[in-house]
Amino acid sequence: RVPHFPPCNPNLSEYTPCHDVDRSLQFPRERLVYRERHCPLEESEFLRCLIPAPNGYTTPFRWPESRDMVWYANVPHKWLTVEKAGQNWVRFEGDRFTFPGGGTMFPRGADAYIEEIGKAINLKDGSVRTAIDTGCGVASFGAYLLSRNILTVSFAPKDTHEAQVQFALERGVPALIGIMATTRLPYPSRSFDMAHCSRCLIPWGQYDGLYLIEVDRILRPGGYWILSGPPINWEGHWQGWERSKEDLSSEQNTIEAVAKSLCWKKLKQRGDIAVWQKPYNHEHCKKSRKVFKKPRFCKAQDPDLAWYTKMEDCLTPLPPVSNITEIAGGERAKWPARLTAIPPRVSSGSLEGIIPDVFTKDTVIWKERLAYYKSLNNALNDPGRYRNLLDMNANLGGFAAALVNDPVWVMNVVPVEARVNTLGVVFERGLIGTYQSWCEAMSTYPRTYDLLHADSVFSLYDGRCKMEDILLEMDRILRPEGCVIFRDDIDVLVKVKTNIDEMQWDSIIYDHEEGPMQREKVMVAVKQYWTAPAPAQTDS
């Protein structure tokens, strides 16, 4: 029997299953546990309906215009402009929001702020390619780093500022709903070149520095941590921050002490910005454990395990080195050579079955596959037609790598059920991604992505969860008129097509790029444009 998928109630147009406010209130407020992922567990809780776009929803502005403006009908949260009045974050102008590029810590604009950071860190030589912005606001920091060839994953919780991540995604900037609370961030160790916090309200000094310990885990050797806002430069701001000198001084001293215990080096504090650097290896750090009893080095837990994995108050050890000048884990090439250079995790032989030759061939294969996709869907040849892309089973990131010259960004998902954990390779290539189980909903808003790529997703999840639930999640996060490219065995695709014919998607199955004798086929589907009905008029 083919399921029927009716439209959901219009008031569910922004439904985020794993960050539902009503469900979150069942969980402890201590350490902000209630703001973490809490997904529906019982089938009776699953929505088996299609999330509508809000009435008046309009095709988003194309990049780069979208960086600076979005339609009000798409993100109808005018209150944010009131709450952030005077902070130059976002303005409401008629039928749209505009983003001046400012923010609480960017009074001269995000570009000028990034230039200040560039005086402490070389942001131009390709050594910094991936960044993470904690408590990102509307992600202006990440938006303005894009012009410098730096890809930023921005995240913020769904709370009183619930629309901020939604604004970021509507702008065409990578973002996820997330929070630093009790579980690890969904990234492997040694992922990011740079981490950033500007007034992000994370209590860095509390819980024995647990959150800085987690930042250390996800920073690559030699990576940077940037902090601006309280308590940095408290001497000049303490009255405006309405906190005592003693309180702010104590907070800064605690942060400095935690950073030292992690063996970070403070590079510079200039004005409102402070920059620290993680060591390239842990040779000196091992000796300093005699001075710093905490945090101890972790022993048992896999440093790349990060899906519902509790944070630990221990320092993730870097891979061993043969001498004090060596970079732990291997040196990464600078961008753009980094994209196709053999990643250290591959050259070291740490991933089962993935040798340099496999990696090189994968890169070539995906260039050929992308060319084939563009012959099937001409919209892929239209620059700006698609901006936000999601690869649901990214493997080595080959699909994203093939798209590097197109004006798009790709969120590369490595499913937690995948046989080999390859997400570290994705980051070593200078790409971004996250862990995810497709038996659950993603930590993002409806209508996040313009194009989804589903390579063998349904074969991977056969017997693990229902096909219809994965397809409904795909429908939730796909924009109206968005595209899905499926690759899978023909028998699987026929079942998928039967379901999506009931979901207001148009689809066509094509032969494999190597011809009709291949059992694997390609299906291209497009979600039809439809929105929630207009609210009924009432007589006054």
TrEMBL record:
<keyword id="KW-1133">Transmembrane helix</keyword>
<keyword id="KW-0489">Methyltransferase</keyword>
<dbReference type="GO" id="GO:0005802">
    <property type="term" value="C:trans-Golgi network"/>
</dbReference>
<keyword id="KW-0472">Membrane</keyword>
<comment type="similarity">
    <text>Belongs to the methyltransferase superfamily.</text>
</comment>
<dbReference type="InterPro" id="IPR029063">
    <property type="entry name" value="SAM-dependent_MTases_sf"/>
</dbReference>
<dbReference type="GO" id="GO:0032259">
    <property type="term" value="P:methylation"/>
</dbReference>
<keyword id="KW-0735">Signal-anchor</keyword>
<dbReference type="InterPro" id="IPR004159">
    <property type="entry name" value="Put_SAM_MeTrfase"/>
</dbReference>
<dbReference type="Pfam" id="PF03141">
    <property type="entry name" value="Methyltransf_29"/>
</dbReference>
<dbReference type="GO" id="GO:0005768">
    <property type="term" value="C:endosome"/>
</dbReference>
<dbReference type="GO" id="GO:0008168">
    <property type="term" value="F:methyltransferase activity"/>
</dbReference>
<keyword id="KW-0812">Transmembrane</keyword>
<keyword id="KW-0325">Glycoprotein</keyword>
<dbReference type="GO" id="GO:0005789">
    <property type="term" value="C:endoplasmic reticulum membrane"/>
</dbReference>
<protein>
    <recommendedName>
        <fullName>Methyltransferase</fullName>
        <ecNumber>2.1.1.-</ecNumber>
    </recommendedName>
</protein>
<keyword id="KW-0808">Transferase</keyword>
